[in-house]
Inverse folding.
């Protein structure tokens, strides 16, 4: 299964829901373009639902870092939600779990955004 992304707006946040696999950087080009469009609309709060993301490579980690950099450069933040399996393992190995805000669910991520 290749990468599939769904984008929705909830409260003042943009939610990107990922499913499938991130094997190469080419798979994330469109997502970064969509992210840039949302940033241009002055959006600053992003949640990435990765609960259905089955697998990522270092290209996936690179994508998360690039997203984080773009969002924080405009004073925004990103929360990773539903981190598990291969994604959780790679985030821990790379110590990126210490850089990203991580919540178990989208609902908890939305609450965190509202209380921040």
């Amino acid at each position: 299964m290749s990468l599939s992304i769904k984008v929705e707006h909830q409260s003042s946040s943009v939610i990107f829901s990922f499913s499938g696999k991130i094997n190469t950087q080419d798979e994330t080009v469109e997502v970064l373009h969509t992210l840039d469009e949302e940033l241009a609309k002055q959006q600053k709060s992003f949640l990435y639902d990765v609960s259905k993301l089955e697998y990522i490579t270092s290209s996936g980690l690179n994508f998360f870092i690039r997203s984080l950099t773009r969002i924080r450069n405009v004073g925004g933040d990103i929360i990773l939600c539903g981190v598990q399996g291969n994604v959780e393992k790679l985030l821990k190995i790379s110590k990126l779990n210490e850089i990203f805000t991580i919540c178990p669910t989208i609902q908890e991520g939305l609450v965190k955004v509202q209380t921040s």
User: Anything to note?
Assistant: The longest strand covers residues 45-56. DSSP finds four helices and five strands in the chain. The chain has one domain: 4-115. The mean pLDDT is 94.
